[in-house]
Amino acid sequence: MPNFFNKHKDTSPPMPAPAVQEDESPITMPIPQVTSPDVSPAASEQGSVPTIPPVIAFSAGSDKDLDGAKKLDSAFRAVANAQNGFHAYKGTSALGIVNKSGDMLTAIKTDVANVQSMTSPLKSAYESEAMKTIRSGVNALVDSLPGLITALDEVAKLHPFIGIAVGAFKVVVELDLKRRDNDKKIASLFLEMKDMMEALLQLDNIKDRDAVGPGGMTIEARMQNLVKQTADDITACGNACDTYAKKRLIVKVVKGSVWEGTLKTYIDIFAKRRKDFTFALAIHTGMGVDDANRKLNTLDHKIDTILEFFATAVSPEQQEMAALVQRKGGPTAVMGNPEALSELLKFKPTAVTTAMKRGEREGQQYSSHTVENDLESLRVELFESPAVAIRNNLEVFERKLKMQQREFAEEMRGMVHHQGDRIIDAVTSGPHDRIIDPDIHEIWKEMRWRGHVKARHFVLALRDYYRQQIEIKKRARGENLVINIHDDDEWALEWININRLQAIAEAFDDDASGFITIAEVNQFTSSRPKDWRQDLLHWLAYWAIGWQMTATYYRDKVIELLAKMFSMRPRIHNANIDAVQKYLLTVYRRVTTVTSSFICTYQSDSLKARFQSYVDSEEQRIREGLETVRYDIDAMDTLTLITGPGRIEKSLFPLLYLLLKRDFEIFRLCQKMIIHKDELWDAADTITWVFDAVVYRHNDLEALFKQQRLDPVQQFKSYANELFDYWHDDSKFTSLENLRELEWTEFEYVEENEEQNVDSKTILNYPSAVHNLYNIPEDIVSDSDALADNDVKSILGRWNGLIGAERWPVTAIVSFCFHASADPNTYEASDVAAHGTGYTLHGGYTKKDDGTIEYNFSRTYIARLRKTYFTGTLDEDDERLSGSWGYSETDKPYRFIFWKNVPPETLIARPPPSEFEENKTKALWKYALTAVHNEVRRKMFSWSYLKERRAIRKEYLELLEHESNNLTTVADLDRFAELDRTATCEDVRCFYVLSDYQRRSVPTHLADCDNCAERIHGARMICIQCRGKDTLDFCDKPACRDANKTRDDITQPHVPTHAFVKVRTVLNQTRDIGKLLRMSDAGLERARKLLDSSVQAGTSEPTSENNGTELKTETKKVEGPREEADAAGSGADTKVAALTCVSCSSEVSYPCWYCIDCPGALREPSLFKDYANPELVVDANVFVCLVCDEKNGGMTVGDHLDTHSLVSCKLPVVEDDKDKNTEQRLSDMEGKLATLTAQMERIERLLQSLAVSRAD
Question: Residue 129: its pLDDT value, please?
């Protein structure tokens, strides 16, 4: 049964605040306590404080503290003296300001003390020689690993049985190098892992692997099982590190002690394995026991030092976050305070901010995945125990291992030299002799380049070289000259020209430095496809024009898939629409930013065919990688494994196409089945990781351009065919004015044209929540059950029962099956609660002096809920378990009762305990009669039984809705208890699933009301007259839609008389808003023409007294098309089609609503049948009166749907004649002033000319 929440959590206690060591006193800073002399606190509180300078008292401290205190005292006195000229209440205000300053100093003192309390105990150990050795080893870890791996490979050739451990070590190390988040805790684990593997190098001294040592065993027989265990330990450690690395900074801080304890275990494991290796090798080689013990003692001392270093390995970011957590009350207080968690989510440490200013990459927790600050997912992550997180991550990590192993295999196959490549005999004969490709070797040698060359010069020399080779080949027809250019590839030379210089240079210059190195040349030539190994010119042509062609092809495919996804939205199941809208919100803007800026090229099919084999092989390679990880990219190292090394732009569009193609199939499934809410969330997160790589690449390029003193704006307009142009600055592209004019590509989705035989099991990663809701439990006796202690056997089996507190019960019926644990004296169970959260039970038993057996067990949820403890005893028949429970082991004030062999269908008929206490016999009879009655009705499918279950379901859903909106009352809780007692666990679980589906179907607009600042639910009102940087949005509450509003980015205030468009579906701000505003403008213009025509024809006469109410007028209705009415003339007897409300059929006039989504709403008059009168043909213009829209909140009538958008039709505001006359007078006056100014200028010029003439 899947969980209904986003993630799983547990209630592991958070890290307690570290205590201050006795030998380290915290930093003391005297904090001023401001009071006024001769004034009581009560008088101070009442505000009757005289204007006397405050007296500042300081706590005792050192001389330095006293000096600082005196300075502060002087400062505070200066502040107080400055208030003497003010009134008494001003003095009180200043006093408050000073007190606030004291509070700030108190907070600073607290932070300093907290930091010192964490750092002081570790200072002496951190500065020891042993600790310095560990630190240097951690810092040099990356440089030392390649040499160790090479040495281990050599030893593995001599002793193949260690290959399994060496292979695991290589893979885990390579994955960590790809991730490289500079976490010292992880680095210390890998340092200990490295030391463990170094012990295997001693096998190099054992040349004869078949030699028999003491005990008649070979070294392989002695160590084989140990090596296998080591390989498993390495993999488990890699999984734990991978899980920890993905955690947010706040989780690493709040759950730091728990994670530290988990990761420390691997240090002990690796230390033990190294001891085992050393001891086994000592026995086999005959080393003295004393020598072996000395080595082991040295290892023990080193392990203690590593553990000390592990405790000190706290990054500056973690220190800042820890100080903030302590200021919020500590980990425990923070975990229970949503407001504090929200603030911590928004917090960015100084180190991260500084790195961003330097253009460095942000940490993983500050990537684009946390922009929306998902508080719920954070709470899930905080409550998730390390053991559960590591177990959940194992499947993903195993996929990474598989991909890394495949990459190693491909590298081994690629080590075979390309046919025609030079074999490098000596690396010291000259820089050119280090180049593998013979053609480039000759160019480099001839040009006498050193280690690098400017990219432009290199490409020009390459072009001239191949042109010269072609000319030599043409002149030497029939001669025995060796020219490395095939006749079939001379076509490629036309693409090696000055116009393609930028593209070719980018292919070589991966780091965009402007220089091409020998290493880059060898990397480029070695990456050729197998089919092109003899032909470098073909490979150059691909990067000159082929890559742009390929990117264009996939870019168009991406646009088509996204367009189909948008056209599919009306078909999506209501329970999936929220997930679909959030997916499109996350994905669409990012994708269109790169697809819109990219410069496309369309060439002939014959040219495309020359590159098709490589394009197909690359698509297949990326597809296989995605299938291996099940299209779930969870970190940057996973993305690197899929795309391979090098620039992300090389494979960006093919990767996006494959991801969107799979997501498109999920959209198709969303039409007919309800998918798990995390399915599309993970899909969007995967694409977000892709664009994180785009962000990193963009930031690197921008920093490089600035270092070269180049303008990034201009550089991005040429680099990679302008792929990063809009990404660098999307302000114009995504501005509201541009979106108003921008028309996106539209593709109609036709189900019949798509692939029909798609297996949902190969597409979806999560099962649907509706699966196995009403499953019959299969309680199979395990092997441990048979070996259990007799007292444990008594409690084994399926139990169903109720748990009470102030109310009976407080939850739905609990159902679980106890099995014996590996320890025969303990037992355990796992199941899913009615609300969808999984839990585990684990317990044992104790025997009292009187022989009574007391069973004690605890229930641990995997998410959000607190751990509970139970203590109970069995009855004589071992059929009833009853006792007490609570939230601590020592305090269990509440009662519970579990029954064995009593099915939930029978248990729901049991009366509450109060009835048994009042009259047990009567309660038992009631229990029996009700149970039998229910069973008979259930088996007969009685209508009364079904009606009763339906009523329970409807009421339970209403209560859950109250709960989700935080509107639960005491009466609701009482009713919850009654319904929980009359519904099975499966029933309540179904209710929670249905409630979740109902909440998912309610549209939540991705916009806040500009009046009340709350998130908009239901209908969204958008002003179509106010023009600003963003739309002016309101919720449909009268106080908001009738509000006057000003905003900095709009030129004129918003008034209620402005025209609105009412939207009841969630809009994608990038794609939908422009089209909606254009349709609203056109629809409003058309609606006004129709209404004005109706008024002119005498159909209705809006007056100021109308106030939106329906006017009672006589109207002649037309029995035919509007064209006939138009041809009838304009006399008094003209027949005009009435404008009526689509819902109530009453006549409409200003003000009303006009539908802009109905067929023909924005075109010239088109015809359709009137559903109220099928024989009548009328114009396809749908109006809705204010009363119907307010009452129904959207309605479906004929082609008009309740999700259609409506534009408000209000009487145009006529400017006041007085205001108009005033404006005209001002305009005339401005004209006269301009004329007078011109005359004065002419007079001034005349006077100047006269003065000059007199001077002459």
Answer: 59
Residue 1082 makes CB contacts below 8 A (sequence gap 6+) with 1156, 1162
Give 52's pLDDT tier (boundaries 50, 70, 90): very low
- Which H/E stretch holds residue 141? helix 141-158
Alpha-carbon torsion (417, 423, 425, 431), positive or negative? negative
CA 451/CA 462 separation, integer angstroms: 17
Give me 308's structure tokens: 């000390």
Q: Given its phi and psi angles, is residue 1189 left (phi above 0), alpha (psi -120 to 50 degrees) or beta?
A: alpha
Largest CA distance in the chain: 136
Q: What is the chain's length? A: 1256
**pLDDT tens string 604-641:** 999 999 999 999 999 999 999 999 999 999 888 899 99
Alpha carbons 568 and 562: distance in angstroms, whole number? 10
C-beta separation of 32 from 103 below 8 A: no
Rounded CA gap, 838 and 829, in Å?
Answer: 11
Contacts of 166 (CB under 8 A, 6+ apart): 149, 152, 153, 155, 156, 197, 200
Q: Token pair for residue 1252?
A: 């000059």
**For residue range 1045-1095, what is the model confidence (pLDDT) as tens digits?**
999 888 889 999 999 999 988 899 899 999 999 999 999 999 998 888 887
> Is the Cβ–Cβ distance between 140 and 377 less than 8 Å?
no
Helices 184-198 and 219-245, packing angle to 10 deg: 170
Contact criterion met (CB below 8 Å) for 16 and 331: yes
C-alpha–C-alpha distance, residues 559 and 553, integer Å: 10
Q: What is the DSSP letter of 1029?
A: S
What is the share, in percent, of the chain residues with pLDDT greater than 70?
A: 73
pLDDT value of residue 724: 95
φ, ψ dihedrals at 684, nearest 5°: -65, -35
Task: Reduce the DSSP state of residue 1194 to 3 states and report it.
Answer: coil
User: Which residues are paired to 871 by β-bridges?
Assistant: 856, 884
Helix axes 184-198, 163-179, angle to 10 degrees: 160
Q: DSSP string covering 275-341, please?
A: HHHHHHHHHHHT--HHHHHHHHHHHHHHHHHHHHHHHH---HHHHHHHHHHHHTT-HHHHHT-HHHH
919 has pLDDT over 90: yes
Query: Is the backbone peptide bond immediately before 809 cis, with ω within 30 degrees of 0?
Result: yes
Three-state secondary-structure class, residue 57: strand
Distance CA 956, CA 992 (A): 9
> Mapping DSSP to helix (H, G, I), strand (E, B) and coil, where does residue 1248 land?
helix
Q: What pLDDT, on a 0 to 100 scale, did the predictor assign at position 1001? A: 77
List the one residue out of 487, 440, 484, 437 whose CA is nearest residue 459: 440
The pTM for the full model equals 0.72
Contact 141, 194 (CB under 8 A): yes
Q: Mean pLDDT score of the chain, rounded to an integer?
A: 78
DSSP H or E stretch at residue 1125: helix 1122-1126
Contacts of 1174 (CB under 8 A, 6+ apart): none
Handedness of CA 938, 941, 942, 945 (dihedral sign): positive
In this predicted model, what pLDDT tens digit does every residue of 758-809 receive, in sequence order?
888 889 988 876 665 676 677 888 888 988 999 999 999 999 999 999 899 9
Residues 6+ apart with CB under 8 A from 266: 189, 192, 193, 233, 236, 237, 240
pLDDT given at position 1139: 87
Q: DSSP string covering 462-474, please? A: HHHHHHHHHHHHH
pLDDT tens-digit map of 527-562: 888 777 667 888 999 999 999 999 999 999 999 999
The pLDDT score that the predictor gives to residue 482 is: 53
Residue 107 pLDDT exceeds 80: no
Tell the residue number behind the tokens 């480099």, with chain if given.
444
Q: Side-chain half-sphere of 874: how many Cα atoms within 13 Å?
A: 18
